[in-house]
Amino acid sequence: MSGVLVDTCVWSLAFRGTSSRETTIAEQLTQLIDENQVKIIGAIRQELLSGYTDKNSYDKLRQKLKYFPSEPVLDSDYETAAEYSNFCRSKGVQGSHTDFLICAVSVRAKFKIYTTDKDFNHYEKHLPLALFKKN
After folding, report:
1. Order of all β-strands in the sheet with 112-114
2. Beta bridge partners of 52
3. By CB neighbour count within 10 A (0-12 exposed, 13-18 middle, 19+ buried), where does 39 fall?
4. End-to-end CA distance of the chain
5. SS3 state of residue 3
């Protein structure tokens, strides 16, 4: 695997960092950053930035996220995401368009997915995903 695509929920928990679970996630994310393993796509960047109505907080986060260039999302990734969505739905598994886009990009680029979203455990049963397992 050539990197770890970090889902919005992990970033959000790491930014909070108040509970022991959030602190553990923040430490793991920091380790991945130190190892230059962290990947992001535009849809995740958008979700993160959409959570800030305060302009100063938005600008600070936007500046910090610039450290992580967005992994390109190809037209074929959108098509694969649609295929994954259709296939999973045929198996009784629902998911968001963004989740399936994350899956498609990760499979193509051979990234692991770091998420706390339990939906990905269901996707993993039907798709060729690799989920990042915390230490």
Report:
1. 38-39, 4-6, 112-114
2. none
3. buried
4. 16
5. coil
Residue carrying structure tokens 């999302």: 73
The tokens describing 49, both together, are 């930035």
Are 10 and 25 within 8 A, CB to CB?
A: yes
- The C-alpha angle with vertex 118 and arms to 94 and 28, in degrees rounded to 5, equals 140
- Rounded Cα distance between 23 and 7, Å, is 16
- The structural domains of the chain, ordered by start, are 3-131 (3.40.50.1010)
pTM exceeds 0.85 for this model: yes
Residue type, 69: P
Q: Going residue by residue through the chain (135 aa), what tens digit of pLDDT does each one get?
A: 589 999 999 999 998 878 898 999 999 999 999 999 999 999 999 999 998 999 999 999 999 999 999 999 999 999 999 999 999 999 999 999 999 999 999 999 999 999 999 999 999 999 999 999 976
